[in-house]
Write a structure and sequence with these properties.
The complex is a heterodimer of chains A (about 325) and B (about 375). By secondary structure, chain A is an alpha/beta fold. Chain A has two domains: about 210 residues, Rossmann fold; about 100 residues, Lrp/AsnC effector binding domain/regulation of amino acid metabolism (RAM) domain (Alpha-Beta Plaits, 2-Layer Sandwich). Chain A is built from eleven helices and 14 strands. A six-stranded mixed sheet of chain A has the order 6-7-8-3-9-10, sandwiched between helices. In chain A, strands 2-1-4-5 form a four-stranded antiparallel sheet, covered by helices on one side. In chain A, a hairpin with a 2-residue loop joins strand 9 and strand 10. Chain A is globular and about 75 Å long. Chain B is of the alpha/beta class. Chain B folds into two domains: about 230 residues; about 110 residues, abc type-2 transporter like fold (3-Layer(aba) Sandwich). In chain B, strand 1, helix 3 and strand 2 form a beta-alpha-beta unit. In chain B, helix 7 runs parallel beside helix 10, helix 9 packs across helix 10 and helix 10 packs parallel to helix 14. Chain B is elongated and about 95 Å long. Classes of the chains: A alpha/beta (about 325), B alpha/beta (about 375). At the A-B interface, helix 2 and helix 3 of A face helix 1 and helix 8 of B.
Amino acid sequence: MTPTQEQAIVVKNLSRHFGDFKAVDNISFEVYRGEIFGFLGPNGAGKSTTIRMLNGLLLPTRGEGRVGGFDIIRENAQIKEHIGYMSQRFSLYEDLTAEENLNFFGGVYGLSPERLKARLTEVLTLVGLEDRRHDLTRNLALGLKQRLALASAIIHEPSILFLDEATSGVDPISRRNFWDLIYAMAQEGRTILVTTHYMEEAEFCDRLVLIYQGRIIAQGTPSELKGEVREAILAVYPDNLDDALNLIKKLPQVDEAAVFGDGLHIATTRPEEIESAIKDTLTAHRIACDRIERVRPSLEDAFISLVQRAEEKGATSGQLSAVS
Amino acid sequence: MDPKRTWAIARKELIHIRRDPISLLQIILLPVVLLLLYGYALTFDIKNVTIAVYDQERSQLSEDFINQFRGTDYFRLEKFTQDYGELKRLLLDRKVQVGLMLPYDFSWQYQTGKTAQGQALVDGTDSNTANIVLGYIQAVTASYNQKLLDQRLMEKGPGRVAMPVDAQTRFWFNEDLESRNYIVPGLIAVIMTVVGALLTALTVVRELERGSMEGLMATPLKRSELLLGKLGPYFLIGMFDMAVVVAMGKFLFQVPLRGSPWLLFAMAAIFLIATLGQGLLISVSSENQLQAFQMAMLTTFLPSFLLSGFVFSIYLMPKPLQIVSYIVPARYLVTISKGIYLKGLGMKVLWPSALMLAAAAAFFVLMSIKKFVKKIR
């Protein structure tokens, strides 16, 4: 992405404190038009707080930002006209039919009756709910509810769409369908900001920021983030995962070990010595091992490695400040 | 303010009500049920007081005296007995409310120029009723005394003598002392409280509880549009219910509406606005629907039932309760509504109550909007 591209969202030194707690701590980033931008981080990292500041629900404690060209502090009324917002709790009304929900949100966005009527058919077709339009929302499966929530968030054709943990609890196929819709919208030039703690979803994003304890600890494309991993990653496939994990964690050469799929992922800065070390330990404890191989780091590896690095840094700076 | 957005909210609210059987029931059935209950079943008029007689003498005079009780429909002679124990038992078992005992020397006392002493035993369990019954007995006795006195004067002395003093009592405003004539005007306040405070408190807290309020705040919806759209339907429903009560009162119970119906509706509208404010205040102060419901019951419904003068006269309450009643908005509406209904009063007399009502409305609306804005920020 080059800086000449149109900026949809710009955030500079944004912070939000709740008392002593820094929910969002001095973050800066830019999102370009037509981009799918991911906010990746564990629960409570500050993702939702950031989104709430961007869509005008929450005022920042410090810092500034612009969304669709409007200032997030002074012009948050205008921002609301141009964005769509879909949260993890889907703001749908269960006792209204699909169509009634869409009519409601269309009305709330101030669409004229003619435009609303046209948009209603468009979005229902887009999310594939034409034949369920008269069903009560409470009778729709979760995946369909999610698509209905998306439809109601885009009924007014917003140029920027915020999806806050929008896919939690949805089955993989529904999630895949949902992402197809998101891609299609980005193709039309809409900007999409997604928060998630699913790694495989993060892979779908054009660019990502990694947010941890209110701070951005890394940003870039998914492959750039994976390139940040300094350690080598080894995949080990032993018979007894739990016992093997405990043994391997004790090895001095191992920086980090975790279960990954049906094997273990081991991060190390000394890949040349570790293979034999692992083999020796496992044999000594009579644990058979299928194979050990060097793998390309996944986004999850990158995430774990980057979080660890941030924690080490945080610990050092904490010690320093304690001394001074 | 955009009417499209306000209407979108109001229409959604109407769908909620339509799909929720309990709200529907409260809106449509409650006024009718309350009115029928108070109009027919729960009458505060005391008639047909049951009475048992233990007449030890059975003389002309005692028979005559007992017949005075028979001649009025306030009493119903249930039983004659010749046993004091039975009389006691009848009172104990609540078979009768009054035991009348006339002694052996009842007529002898009278004939020898003394006062004939009888005894009336009244079941005092329910003190209000006992007092009223006591009044009836005294009235019957007094009128019989009058008759005997006239007779005696005719026989012995100067012939008919005019009563030195006589107070002719008449009841004004509710001539027949029909309790529904004051129940119906008072009921308006109770029904409006249910719609205004109870239902409103629930609808707003539901949205806060479910988190859909946050979704709404991320749209360009203004708070004024949200409030108007959300409370507007309940205002209309409250006014509709009031019209039902007034119409039923007039055509089913023949309760006279002597003053201006327009004034009545205008005052009720102000009261309803105050109640909607209370409902909103409750919903932003409570965590969930159950809490909101209990709070609405305790702070709006019960006071407007008990402390408004709807059923229980405020003048007869202990002083501290009387003072509390001043902050119950329903008190002012009940005063106004009874004044318009029974006395045909206008603003000339009712303005202090109207002023208090308007003050309550202003207070609750401002307070609730202030708290609401803070809550959803």
